[in-house]
Specification:
Elements lengths: L1 H21 L9 E2 L3 E4 L4 E8 L3 E6 L4 E4 L2 E3 L2 E7 L8 E9 L5 E8 L26
Parallel strand pairs: 2-9
Antiparallel strand pairs: 1-3, 3-7, 4-6, 4-8, 5-7, 8-9
């Protein structure tokens, strides 16, 4: 009789342990990026960043001078921000927004780009032109 009760107790304990183990959910990777701002010179360029996610996401920006590759995906990946060269001497700023499709949670990356220097440089301040130079040496 004692042996039969021990078997039932052991079976109940094994069932309880297996149900506790099977109920543990797999951890979901957190959503985030490895930087919250990017600074680029007037010449533009490519800047990498790391996106961590366990879900589907999409990248958006309102700025035509900013492009992100890939623009959408599922899970964590390395992305690249491509910044066009500046066309003016004033600095400009833009925002890249990464959004989870399932929850709408967002992460923003602020992009700042310097403008070109506003100057005209002839390289030298003195010029010499010969008077009445021979025909083959005239400009």
């Amino acid at each position: 009789m004692m042996n039969k009760n021990s078997i039932y107790s052991f079976a109940a304990l094994a069932l309880l342990c297996s149900s506790a183990i099977s109920c543990v959910e797999d951890p979901v990777p957190s959503f985030g990026v490895d930087r919250d701002s990017i600074e680029v010179g007037a010449e533009g360029g490519n800047v990498p960043f790391r996106l961590e996610s366990g879900e589907s996401w999409v990248v958006r920006t309102q700025e035509p001078w900013l492009t992100v590759s890939p623009a959408n995906g599922n899970g964590s990946t390395d992305c690249t921000v491509m910044v066009d060269s500046a066309l003016a001497f004033t600095p400009r700023e833009g925002v890249i927004r990464i959004e989870l499709l399932s929850t709408g949670e967002r992460k923003d990356i602020k992009v700042s780009q310097k403008g070109f220097d506003y100057r005209i440089d002839a390289g030298t301040t003195e010029f010499s032109l010969a008077n009445f130079a021979p025909y083959g040496e005239r400009y």
